[in-house]
Amino acid sequence: MLLDPDAMVGRRAGLVLWAVYDADDSIDSAATQHRDGSTRPAEMVRGPGWRGRLLLLLDEPDRVQSVTLHRRDGTVADYRPEEIAN
């Protein structure tokens, strides 16, 4: 993840960082859902002058089954890692 791209040729990333920018504060929480049923919650970051916040998820890609967003309106969205643009 923090290596020169040429050094990653033929290697799998040990960690993947997913970032969701929630400009209108519509997301209540986010987490990675693991294949074994456990979860890892997102870290939420606000910056001075930012509208909304940034949700950060750092996890081991082989453990992650989905990235789940719980919206304030009660809806839930699940995304498989391969559905999310790199």
Question: How would you portray this structure in words?
Answer:
- By secondary structure, the chain is mostly beta strands.
- Helices cover 0% and strands 47% of the residues.
- A four-stranded antiparallel beta sheet has the order 3-2-6-7, with no helix packed on it.
- Strand 4 and strand 5 form a beta hairpin.
- The relative contact order is 0.26.
- The model has no long low-confidence stretch (mean pLDDT 89).
Separate helix tally: 0
Number of strands: 7
Helix content: under 10%
Strand order of the largest sheet: 3-2-6-7
Mean pLDDT: 89
Low-confidence stretches: none
C-alpha end-to-end distance: 12 Å
- Provide the gyration radius in Å: 14 Å
Describe the secondary-structure layout.
Blueprint: E1 16-22, E2 27-34, E3 39-41, E4 43-45, E5 53-59, E6 64-71, E7 76-79
Search tags:
86 residues, mainly beta, three-stranded antiparallel β-sheet, 7 strands, 0% helix, 47% strand
Give a short summary of the structure:
0% of the residues lie in helices and 47% in strands.
